[in-house]
Amino acid sequence: MTHYKEVTIYDIAEVLKVSPATVSRGLKDHPGIRKDTKRKIVDTAKKMGYQHNTFASNLRRKKTNTIGVIVPRIESHFHSLVISGIEKVANTMGYNLIISQSQELFKNEVNSIATMFNSRIDGLLISLSNETKSTDHLEMLLRKKIPLIFFDRVIEHPDCTRVVIDNKKAGYDATQHLLKQGCKRIVHMDGPINRNVYADRLEGYKQALQEVNINFDSSLVINIELTDKAAAIAAQQILKMQPLPDGIFTANDISAVSCIRELKRAGIRIPDDIAVVGFNNEPIATVIEPNLTTIGYPGREMGEIAASTLINKLNKTNVTNLNTIVLRHELIIRQSSQKKK
Amino acid sequence: MTHYKEVTIYDIAEVLKVSPATVSRGLKDHPGIRKDTKRKIVDTAKKMGYQHNTFASNLRRKKTNTIGVIVPRIESHFHSLVISGIEKVANTMGYNLIISQSQELFKNEVNSIATMFNSRIDGLLISLSNETKSTDHLEMLLRKKIPLIFFDRVIEHPDCTRVVIDNKKAGYDATQHLLKQGCKRIVHMDGPINRNVYADRLEGYKQALQEVNINFDSSLVINIELTDKAAAIAAQQILKMQPLPDGIFTANDISAVSCIRELKRAGIRIPDDIAVVGFNNEPIATVIEPNLTTIGYPGREMGEIAASTLINKLNKTNVTNLNTIVLRHELIIRQSSQKKK
DNA sequence: TTGAAAGCGCTAACAA
DNA sequence: TTGTTAGCGCTTTCAA
Prior knowledge:
The structure is a homodimer. Chain A is α/β, with parallel strands linked by helices. The first copy, chain A, has helices spanning 9-16, 20-26, 35-48, 54-61, 77-92, 106-118, 139-143, 167-180, 196-211, 228-239, 253-265, 299-315; strands at 66-71, 96-101, 123-126, 148-151, 161-165, 186-190, 221-223, 247-250, 275-277, 294-296, 324-327, 330-332. Chain A is elongated. The structure holds a DNA duplex.
C-alpha cells in the first residue's frame, strides 16, 4: 500500500526503552501491565503515528477478522437493510466484511463459499438462495469449525444459529386479517416452498383458514418466482378463476404491487372486489394505490443481531449455542385490504 | 479461524524435494521457472489441499488487497446497485471490500476514512455525503499515495479519477422535455447545491430555459433534502404559488413521487395541470400513478467501472491518469410528463 | 532455473 | 510486571 516506513511496536519500544512485548501488551487491554506504563505506551504510539498492523497480527493469531456475508441480491431492499445493519456492527467491533451475492443461484452460492473459505473468513452470515436445498456445501466450513449463522432464508442445522421471524405466524396474521375483512376465497401467491420462509407462510395461511373452517384448496395457491413479471402472469391466471377470489395474500410486496396493477387494469376494484396483503413493507407499498397492507419486519435489526451473535461466538470459547433467534413482525394495515362494511 | 494445521508451501516443498522459494514461484506466474516443475507444484498443492495464505503474503508484500467503499446509505436503491457492481468486480479480481456508510454526515465520513486508513486499504471508492465540501479529510490517504476514486457524488481533485454521468446534460434533457410538452413555468426541486450532482442538474435546467428564452426565476428553485417528508412539505409550498407552475423537475424519484402524491391529494391533475419528471429510475417510478418520467443511469455499471479502474491503478505503476469517466444516461418518458395536446 | 536466508510486524509461551 | 525468544507463512534478494 505504501512505500513509506511505518511505525512499528519496535520503534515505540526503542523510544521507551522497553520490550516490544510490553508495547504489544500496553496497546491492548492486557491484564498484568502497570497503568502508567500503559499510558506511556499509548501516548507515545499516538505521538509517533503508530498504526496497528492487522495482517501481522492476523498471521500470528491465525484469525482474519473477516466475516463473510452472502445474500441473494445486494440490491434487494430488504437485504440492503440487513447488510446496512451487519456493516454497522462489524465496523464497530473491528471486523471486515466480504460480501457476495448468489443471485438466487445455488451454483453461485457454492462458488462464493469456496472463495470465502479460501479467504479464511472467521465466520459466515448467509441468507440462502431459493435453489438451495441442503447444507452439503457448507460442511467444508463446519468441518473447520468456522461458525455459520443463517438469517431470514434459513435451513435446519444442529450447529448453526438462525435469525428469523415467525413466518408461520406472520402468514397466519395476514390471512386472518383478510378473513376478518370478510374474505372467503383467498389466493396465496408464494415462492418456492423448499425455502423456509415460503413454506412457513403457507403453513400460517392454512392454519388461519382451518380455524374458521374453510377447507384448504390447493388450486388457490400459486407458487412462482415472486418477481414483477411472474406476478403479472399469475394475476392473469387469477382473473380466470371461477369464481373470482375475494382476497390475495402474496409472500412479497413486489408481487403484490404487480398483481394489483394488473387487476386494476382489468377493472377489478381493490380492496372491494379483491383485498390484497403483501409481505416485507418495502417503499413501493406506500406508493401503490391503494396503499398496500403488508407484514413489516426489521431488516436492519436482523443484520445487527446476526452480526453480533456471530462475533460473540468468535470471541468466546464457551458459547451457549443459541439455536434460533426470532424477531418480531407486525401486520401493517393500509387501504389495499380494508373492505368497506 | 481454525486449530487444524494448514498446508503451507513448506509442506509442498518437502514432498517435492524443492525449496519453498520454488514452490512460491511455481504457484504464480513467475517467469524463469520450468514448466514441468510448475505443473508438479500446482498439482501437488491441489492434491494436498493447499490454501494460499493472504495474510502472510500481505504482510510480506505490504499490500492488503482490500478496497474501501463509502456510500451515503447502503440501503439506497441506487447505491445498492453500485455496491453490487463493485462487489462483482472486486470478487473476480481477488480483492476484499470494506463497506461503510456516511449516512450523509460529514462526521461519519471522516470517521470511516480514518478507520479504513488504519485498516490499510489499498484504495478507496467513495460517493460523498451531502455535507462534504472539501477534500481535506482525504489528504491523509493521498499523502500515502492510496488511490482514490469518486463516483456519482464527486468533487474536483487533480489526483483522483471520477466516475459520473453528465448531470448537467441530464438536467437539460429533463427540462427540455418538459418545455416540449408545453410547460412554461417549471419548478426545480433540487438537493444541496454544494454537491456536484445537484449543482449540475440545476445548471442544465437553467440552460434549457435560456435556450427558449425563458428567464430564470430563482423562486422556482426549491433546495431541500430530497426525502419523502421534505418533498411533501415542498409540494405544499408549490400549491401556494401564484400562478401555479405547469411542470416540476425533481432531482430524485423519491421526492417526485412524494410530490405527486401530495399534489393529487390537492386535486391537481398529473400531468395535465402539472407535468413531473424525476431522476434515478427507481422501482417506485413504475408504481406511482401516473408512472414517472425520469432520468435513468446505470448504477451497477458505475460500480463495476469504478472498481476496475481502481484495481487497474493498483496493479500498474504507470497509469495514464484518467480524470473523468462519463457514463450515459437516458430520459425515460412515462405518463407523468406527457401532456395531451 | 533453483536455493538460502532474511525479515514483514506481531503475539504468546515461558522465563525472570 | 516485564523481557526473551521463537515463530505465523510468505516473498524476494542474492548467490549458485
